[in-house]
Specification:
The chain is α+β, with helices and mostly antiparallel strands and 726 residues long. Helix content is 53%, strand content 9%. The chain contains 29 helices and eleven strands.
């Protein structure tokens, strides 16, 4: 007879004694269980003891998480969180440097547990740590001079414990003094500082800026871009990552009016070229977190264009009208005529003719063309940049098109406006950066005016594609669609420079795009006749069952998920997989992202499939309703899902990518007997159905298909027939 569901068999350790095998009744209060364990080893005052998971985490067992105890778990009897917090609170104030160092190391490890953290914070532990950092006592200063490694470790463990405690979100960031901020900033501003201390200090500054607008202003007063730049010129990628994260945080939280000023300072300090030479083109491969920070910097830089993108042109503004006059002057090599030269009508007629050649929609008053937002004044800025910095190409395009028939000319003005709008959509100008995206483009770090150069390459591509398509004015939208496809396909190849991007576009001519489209169309061939449709309906359930089995098999293989915390870089992972009999979800925390298969015994937690009530996705998930920096953005919402079980209990997921999101939501819905509705399922259904249809429609009359594969022939007696190319 199987044991009752509420009885769990575990082993319990106690230092200096043999482990005990014990059955725990989950219906009993935890205090009663601890008392029973203490009595077994003749220990008094059971209220001073607690149980921990005996693994690398050493997390305390509480009434909230006691259901995580599974059969075969190994527990450890230890001091209660309160007792441990009191002891560490006293020990870190020891006059002995060795004792202080050891206790701070223990505190840094213990602070990862929220139960301990709550007790230590209740003892005003955060204030004690900040005072230790702020004080900068003579003893610390002397120690720094005579025992630099020891000082570095002491300060490193202090800051690590602080960061771990703050990560639980129990204490508000707004409570910290200017003296503490100045001290942390001083560690960043020093040219020679222990690596671990520098890392923690940068992490603290980033969290302060992201979590408090008030602290942003205080940090911005203490830290300058010039002081951060030297940290990018080293070889430690972790330090470089933390440094760019602080720059991004300052950029993100800066008021609108200060962002342009900050961008100007970044340009003066040559941040882009330093990142290009020391990070992107260094010998060290770029890890995911660095890629994310570079992506965030890229997004924030392009978002500086949003103001111009959303600014309409004022047709009455003479300074803005002068830009259009400048475009005309460069194209046709004419100087602005004085007001008394010729009649007004004659000058108007001449302007109208030239504006028509420049490809504006409104020939009389081109300023009206720039009242559409987006792209607003950004389009005019791009046109002027192209005319001034690529003058030969600009003049060639304008004169070339003005010499064609009206219906075959590629209107430069209209094309530039629509192209600028398209590029803003492709680069998502004005949108907040995604929390888990790594999609940065190295080529945008190779030029100070990368967006304008990007436009210059693409406007020449548009003109080339227009000629290849022999397009007329009626084909304008078709040409823009082809150009978008050319740009998107070239960007997916992640060119390292703008020149490389340009050469990739050269290979993606209109003829090549047609070949690619034709190939894709053949692969997605659709048959519409009635017999074919009936055959499709007959096959569809078989294919759906095949997809279902594939999804369940993928769930059995399992997936590593990342736990998103307020400090994104210190990733915590957990793994989840479905049991081979499809009855239980096994899951558990991991120290790092797994490189191979995760052993079954390392996943201690489990959730019976029978207990699952529903699968919730997107903004309805409980972990998406929490407040956090950049948490409520669209991409994270699209990857979030939760499993509802028992009485309002949730298992929360954030998939690593869209593919895994579809696999898991499909698989969980299949387990619950619900329809699989993801885009991935639709795509698989179309692909497999198309293949199966083609196989069944092959002309196989009078062709006998063998039931067994043909035998493998014997090896030849010699290999003289092999030709050696060397």
């Amino acid at each position: 007879m199987p044991p009752p569901a509420d009885i769990v068999k575990v082993a319990i350790e106690w230092p200096g004694a043999f482990p005990k095998l014990m059955e725990i009744d989950q219906k009993k209060p935890l205090s009663a269980i601890i008392k029973e364990v203490c009595e077994g080893w003749s220990l008094g005052n059971p209220e001073n003891f607690a149980l921990q998971i005996a693994d690398a985490t050493n997390f305390y067992i509480t009434e909230k998480n006691r259901n995580d105890i599974k059969n075969g778990s190994i527990l450890r009897l230890t001091n209660s969180p309160y007792q441990t917090a009191v002891q560490l609170h006293e020990r870190i104030q020891s006059s002995s440097m060795d004792a202080k160092l050891e206790s701070l190391k223990d505190l840094a490890n213990a602070s990862r547990d929220i139960t301990f953290a709550q007790e230590f914070i209740n003892l005003d532990g955060i204030s004690l740590l900040t005072q230790m950092v702020e004080s900068g006592t003579e003893r610390y200063q002397k120690l720094q001079k005579i025992m630099k490694p020891c000082f570095g470790d002491l300060l490193s463990f202090t800051l690590t414990a602080f960061v771990e405690l703050m990560d639980h979100g129990i204490v508000s960031w707004d409570t910290f003094s200017v003296a503490f901020i100045k001290k942390i900033a001083s560690y960043v501003n020093k040219s020679a500082m222990d690596t671990a201390v520098l890392q923690r200090s940068l992490a603290i500054l980033e969290s302060m800026v992201l979590n408090s607008q008030d602290l942003y202003h205080k940090v911005a007063q203490e830290i300058t871009i010039g002081q951060l730049i030297p940290h990018l010129q080293g070889t430690d990628q972790d330090i470089q990552t933390y440094t760019i994260a602080v720059i991004n945080a300052l950029f993100l939280k800066a008021p609108e009016e200060k962002r342009q000023e900050m961008a100007h300072i970044l340009a003066q300090k040559q941040l882009r070229s330093i990142i290009l030479s020391n990070v992107i083109r260094s010998n060290t491969p770029i890890n995911d977190e660095m890629a994310h920070q570079l992506y965030v910097l890229q997004v924030l830089t392009f978002n500086l264009l949003e103001d111009r993108m959303m600014t309409k042109m004022d047709p009455q503004d003479q300074a803005q009208r002068d830009i259009i006059f400048e475009l005309r002057r460069i194209a046709f090599d004419v100087e602005c005529e004085p007001n008394n030269s010729g009649s007004i009508e004659k000058r108007k007629s001449m302007y109208t003719r030239d504006y028509k050649k420049l490809g504006f929609i409104n020939h009389v008053n081109p300023a009206v063309d720039f009242t559409q937002i987006p792209p607003g004044m950004l389009a005019l800025d791009n046109m002027l940049y192209f005319a001034r910095h690529h003058q030969d190409a600009y003049i060639r395009i304008v004169l070339e098109n003005s010499s064609r028939e009206d219906k075959h000319e590629c209107p430069f003005g209209r094309s530039s406006i629509e192209l600028t709008k398209m590029l803003c959509e492709i680069l998502k100008v004005g949108e907040l950066p995604s929390e888990n995206c790594h999609d940065f483009h190295p080529m945008f770090f190779t030029h100070d005016r990368s967006f304008e150069e990007f436009f210059c390459i693409c406007i020449q591509l548009l003109n080339k594609t227009w000629k290849e398509m022999r397009a007329t004015s009626e084909d304008f939208n078709k040409v823009m669609q082809v150009v978008r496809e050319q740009i998107m396909r070239a960007l997916t190849l992640k060119p390292n420079s703008l020149d490389q991007f340009k050469s990739r576009l050269q290979n993606l001519s209109y003829t090549e795009i047609l070949k690619i489209r034709q190939s894709e169309r053949m692969n997605q061939e659709d048959f519409q006749s009635r017999p074919i449709l009936e055959l499709r309906e007959k096959i569809q359930p078989e294919i759906m069952e095949l997809i279902k089995q594939q999804r369940l098999n993928r769930l059995c293989d399992g997936t590593c998920f990342r736990k998103i915390s307020s400090r994104r870089r210190q990733d915590k992972f957990w793994y989840c997989r479905l049991s081979p009999n499809h009855k239980v979800l096994h899951y558990g925390d991991l120290e790092e992202s797994p490189q191979g298969e995760v052993p079954h015994d390392s996943l201690q937690d489990k959730l019976p499939v029978a207990d699952i009530k529903a699968v919730i996705t997107g903004k309805d998930c409980p972990h998406m309703k929490e407040k956090g920096a950049l948490k409520q953005n669209k991409e994270v919402l699209e990857l979030a899902f939760s499993v509802l079980y028992e009485s309002d209990e949730y298992l929360n997921f954030i998939a690593p990518d869209k593919h895994e999101y579809c696999v898991w939501t499909d698989g969980l819905n299949a387990l619950l007997g619900k329809e699989m509705t993801s885009d991935y399922t639709k795509s698989d259904m179309d692909t497999l159905l198309s293949m199966e249809m083609k196989l069944r429609l092959l002309d196989l009359e009078n062709i006998q298909i063998p039931e067994a594969p043909p035998p493998i022939p014997k090896e030849p007696s010699n290999y003289d027939f092999v030709y050696d190319c060397n």
